[in-house]
Structure prediction request, 1050 residues.
Amino acid sequence: MKQFLQKSMATRLISLVVAFFMVASLEGMAQIGSSPGSSSQGSSLSASVPQPKKTVLKSTQRTISSISQRIQTRSGDILKITHEGNETQYSDWTTAMDALQEGDEITLLQDITFTMDGGDNPMPTKPCIINGGDSNYTLKFQNNNSEPADCDLQAAITFKSIILSANLLMANGNQILFESGATMNSGFVFGGGTTEVASTSITIKDGATLTNVYGGGFSGKVTGNTQVTVEGGSVTSIYAGGYQAPVDGTANLTISGGSVGNNNSIFGGGNEAGATCGNTNVILSGGTINAWVFGGGNEGLISGTAKVSLQGSTINKNLYGGSRLASAICKNTDVTVSGGSVNWLFGGGEQGPVTETAKLAISGGTVNGTICGGGSSALCGNTDVSIESGSWGFIYGGGENGSVTGECHLVVSGNPTITGIVFGGSKSVDATVGSTRVEISGGTFKDSGNEDFGGPIFAGGWGCTVTGNTSIVVTGGKMGFLYGGCSQGCVEGKTYVEVNGATLDGGTDSGTPSSATIYGGGFGDDYADDGYDADLGKVGSTKVLVKNLTPGTGGVILYGGGLYAGVTGNTDVTIENGTFTQIWGGSHTESIDNTQYQGTVGGDVNVLVKGGEIGTLGAARDQRPGQAVPVGGNMNLTIEGGEITRQINSGNHPNGNGYKPCILTVRNQGTEDNPFKLPETYAINNMVLDNSTVTYREPEASSGVFILHAISINKDYPMAISGSGKLTGDKIILTNFNIGSLPIDVPLVTGDKQLKDASFVAYEGPGDGSVTGLSSLPVYKVGDTYRKTEKTETGGDIVKAKVVTITQPSHGELTVKWVENNRENILDDGDQVPAGTKLTLSLTPNSGYQGGKIYVDGQPLTGSTYTVTDDVTISASDITQTPDPEPEPVPPVYHTVTLPAVEGAITNPIAGDYDIEAWDNFRFYLTLDKEYDQSEPIITTDRGETIQPRTSDGAYIIKYVRQPIVIKIDGVVKNPDPVANETVDTGGIKIYTANGYLHIQAPQPEQVHIFTPDGRLLKAFRTSDNEEQIALPKGIYLIRVTNQCVKVVL
Prediction:
């Protein structure tokens, strides 16, 4: 029976297994938490920089105007000139220079010393070759005190097999070529001089030896470009720019062979602050360089871009795309590496800032140290690093100690092999970075301490602070660990990790597969000796999206938070596809005293699974003994697809202090015929089934461990199941979150319609040792709760709970309620309760019904409570229909009728407002006064109708009053005095009065209007072919026939 462990022991065993794999995965990562070593070649700042000085001629010296008087030689011929194959020897320098033609070769026949005292320039004025001959004679320039003096070239010169001795050898814009045997062991060579020139060119061939070379001038500007070319030989120090003077164009340096440097520096730019350059271009295709290489200057700034191309040279020191000192600002740098080798590689400067973008592109070659997109201690605006192939060590998208105010962009593609740690940001704890963006589409990443382990990649830096956001998107390649944050530095903004197509392989430890891991957060403090610092590796919030990946043999673990580090805000994890052994929404924590895994999440933990196969899915990773669950906000797990095979875990642990609720939502999963299968749910207190049908997996035995696939419950926080879906399955196992059996007669699971097709049992032990022979106790339903029964004291038969049968009436609702510990349980038909349970019964008739009685086992209930002693049937009857009430009388509606007062007549009723019930009639009479009895009243209403008097009694009737009505009475006028009128004939129309009538004759129909003197219309009609006779009261009228108007007196 020992092989069948109880659930709590199995959980601890699994935790130990997980911890083992994590330790195995992290053994090779010890150096992530400790600072990687600094540059093995140290700093160029420790090396001195030779400083040229112009020769000063003392005023007390005698000036010798004759060149010949200033030459020190032995007796005899001093040189020969070869012209087109013909040789001529000369004992006098001046005579020889007068005879010199362009292209001739001067060969010294003995050492020659010029004493330069400010007189004429002895150097040739025509392009030529100066050869020291087989004896390598010396050409020397000195002042009157025998100190090295300056030499100013006046034409293009090629030096070979000669020893040059001068303070400053200034080409003054003339081309200068040093061939084999040309040696200048001290002093300085300048392509320019002390005056302005257009361009310069210095070439050094194999066999030549020079000390200090400047492509620009000593103090004279170069308005165009400079060019220093080293094809061979030996040069100690090179500046493609000037010493004190600017180069307006591009300062070019090309090294294809030879030996350059002697533990010092070479520069694409100039030396002092005044030696600025427009652009620089350094091409390194061969030779050995034992010096620090700078694309920029020493103190002189680069207003444009400093470019360096490493194609084949061997550099034993570091290469910087930018400048050496802080004053030597570069606007941009552009470093490409396609071959050759270098120690440390920087896209930025050592101390010289890059105001805009430091660009570094690597497609080949060898970097023996670390690659930094930014500067050693120099500031950069942005960095842009791309790596396509080759073998590399540690990589920083930012600087070593240098900050980056904007974005660090790092791209790894193709098939490079990187044995080390990759950081998107800077290394130093004193550095800051604005944001990072890491894109990985190829490459193999290995751990530098143990190449059998997969290598780690950080979106952030090692110790820097990222003030904005970080992002890492992985679409290819093979690596062991991904971090959205920093190792020891913090990310103040958001982190984003996306994986779509890469291989996550943790490698092996002595042949044992190790897990690969994805972290939304940082590495953090593993507090080896000095206590735990929660700020190390902390990030603001995280978002992890996995679209697809290929796992290694050790599997893949994912954390929304960090390893030892925490998250200030929320974590969001979305899984679309891929295979995982574990997925956790929070940081890695453990239920072990004094564990270094203490990362917390200050906000919410959200995990959304849309696809893939996952062993364990959890919110918080664990809960430290005596501590709260390390999540400050809500914990939400959502399943919209995929498969979870082992466990769904809230993160609560029995040894912790307090319980943290966790919501599990299953959305649009499963059908009646094929329900979605859940594994064990561990300390989940809220499961929402959104349009889903789910069930639990059957118990199974795996590697000697019983996997129950049960609902693991904290007795104080029952599993609440809600939503539009349902849980199906027979004898779903309930287990205790803590050690031991579940308590009896307390809610363990709650739900309503979601649980109609589910039943439960409480796990008691392994039983007969088979998967089907588990020891369990029944679980009974009380309302929306499910509870465990108990055994007798002797351990005999199970004491069954009492069944409550509820028969609902036809026209009402019978409610049976059990109040327990202030929790109200509404019972359904068939629920069970323990004997002695006090039930509260109530009956509510349906609308339209009244009365009714409650019956218990057929007997009327007295009061409203009943104590259960055995199985019981509760019913109700005697509910009667409520009689319909008498309808309420409809109150009448009244409308106002307004009857006006009129001169010359009286009305009955008198003038005024009258309220008339709707649809009734209003009647009134009109009696004309004697002086007005010849009038013909016209009665109208504001409804637009004209009312005629009733024939029988002369009453005026306003029918069907259904709105307020105003009556208008017109046509009542005073009778006129008798007046005789003559006939009026207008256009064939005759109008006259006779016998009290108005007569109108018209040859055709005409429109007639009759008005009173005050303009009131009395009549309007159209004449016929006959004569019209109109009776009117006596008076004066205005008659308008069509367009004619006359006045008549009747």
